[in-house]
């Protein structure tokens, strides 16, 4: 029987070949009150190899067994009072040793600096040994009841100017996430 020794370059090439093409398992977990963040989750799922997906589901439906089976976890949230939900923070804390990509939506703010502040707050909940590999955030539409509340509040002269700004923001957010947001998300996934 003939035994052949591999050189360092051949070993590296063999290892790289073994780690490509389907061995990077991932989870997409999200919290979505109005459907915006779930929409982004489905966009991520469509952009990645289906055979590598362990689960794409709401955070509450992702088990420790699912987490153990994945190398990378895409975690989505919606913004409430400038941060994500407690359930998302608890979930992020469970991702020790995982690669994490954060994504989210916010009804307010059209500025990346505002989105970065939110992402920074959410990121603080990550397990210390988790590795952030990317993040993305965009505006998301809000329920019609929010606009109705702003219109009602605008009747108060002391609040009229502020409420007109809120109504304008609401109207701007109504078309998001849109095709541009989806293209920007896919670009963020590429690194």
Overall geometry: elongated
Q: Strand tally, please?
A: 5
Report how far the terminal alpha carbons are from each other.
47 Å
Q: pLDDT under 50 segments (min length 5)? A: 1-7, 11-22
Mean pLDDT: 89
Strand order of the largest sheet: 2-1-3-4-5
How large is the count of helical segments? 8
Strand and helix order = HEHEHEHEHEHHH
Strand content: 15-25%
Question: Structural class given helices, strands, pairing?
Answer: alpha/beta
Largest sheet report = 5 strands, parallel
Evaluate the radius of gyration.
21 Å
Work out the helicity level.
40-55%
Question: SSE layout and pairings?
Answer:
Elements: H1 8-18, E1 26-30, H2 36-47, E2 53-58, H3 64-68, E3 72-78, H4 86-93, E4 99-106, H5 112-123, E5 131-139, H6 144-153, H7 160-173, H8 179-190
Parallel strand pairs: 1-2, 1-3, 3-4, 4-5
Task: Give a verbal description of the structure.
There is one protein chain. The chain is α/β, with parallel strands linked by helices. 44% of the residues lie in helices and 18% in strands. It has a 5-stranded parallel beta sheet with strand order 2-1-3-4-5, with helices on both faces. Helix 2 (36-47) crosses helix 8 and helix 6 packs antiparallel against helix 7.
Write a concise synopsis of the structure shown:
The chain contains eight helices and five strands; from the N terminus they run αβαβαβαβαβααα. It has 191 residues and is of the alpha/beta class.
Please tag this protein with its features.
44% helix; disordered N terminus; 191 residues; alpha/beta; 5 strands; 8 helices; elongated
